[in-house]
Amino acid sequence: MYSSSSASKFVILIHVFAMQLLHINSELPLNTTNAYLNHKCLVSKGKYKPGSEYEKQLKLTIKNFYSDSGNKEGFTLLGSDGFSAILQCRGDSYGSKCRDCYATAVAALHRRCPWYKAKIIWYDQCLLSFDTKYSTGQIDYDNNFCMSNAKKLGGDKLAFIRTWNIFMDNLTTLAIRVDNNDTKTSPLYAVGETKFKGDMMYGMVQCTKDIPEKACEECLVFNSIHFQFCLNDKRGARFMCRSCTFRFEFYPFIAKQVRNI
Ligand SMILES: *[C@@H]1O[C@H](CO)[C@@H](O)[C@H](O)[C@H]1NC(C)=O
Ligand SMILES: *[C@@H]1O[C@H](CO)[C@@H](O)[C@H](O)[C@H]1NC(C)=O
Ligand SMILES: *[C@@H]1O[C@H](CO)[C@@H](O)[C@H](O)[C@H]1NC(C)=O
């Protein structure tokens, strides 16, 4: 049911079957799903040796992130010249949900990219990335992919694109809004819904908390153009990268949306 356009097509293909199993008896919301989506071992950045400084740094970070992952924000990062790490949980996954996703992600990344210095893994509810350089605060244009429901929407494609564009704009505006308040931080996360020809369409955008609002918008715009053929005319699709993500479905998939039915 799910198809993909990405560098790691093969890896995704294997998981298409898992996704099919998951989605076959739904478009019903499954509240406990935290599907594995994709991962990437950044092979060109090399491997570390047992006992190396890099290993020590990585192990310490993994330990520290474990306690941080339970925080209210569902986000933590570490950035230095030779090493950076980001954990970003989905906006509705904080506290123990974020920590569970983190624990799953760390274990899977360890297994899937053993000894690689730089690696990224994506789950429904979190993203975890390690890198060999100071990469926080910047948009990552290199590591992105898109998955879409193979079921076509059919019908009036232009009308859909028009609605979709406004919907995406609305969500982006919401995500980067700065509360006129002393905190001056934007959520970099927004969920919403809109009707398309009588069907309810649910959407979500999120950027990692290390990038500024302007970069968040750029990241979302760049990827929605880059992946337009994956996103348009489908009964659900999503793109992900290291800095931002967007998803829409014709069923609710965020905890709050599910509760609201
Ligand atoms: C969803 O959550 C409800 C209550 O929180 C629970 O009773 C139900 O078993 C959960 N569904 C699944 C598929 O886990
Ligand atoms: C976009 O936002 C405007 C203003 O809040 C709203 O009237 C409109 O219905 C929204 N459209 C979509 C497609 O989300
Ligand atoms: C800022 O926002 C918070 C949360 O919405 C609210 O409780 C608080 O009163 C606001 N502060 C000001 C100065 O508006």
From TrEMBL:
Name the family the entry cites.
Answer: Belongs to the cysteine-rich repeat secretory protein family.
Q: Name one GO cellular component term.
A: extracellular region
Primary localisation category: secreted
Intracellular or extracellular location(s):
Secreted
Keywords in UniProt for this one? Repeat, Secreted, Signal
Q: Which residues form the signal peptide?
A: 1-26
- One Pfam family recorded for the sequence: Stress-antifung
Limits of the Gnk2-homologous domain: 36-135, 141-253
Please identify the protein, giving its name as recorded.
Gnk2-homologous domain-containing protein
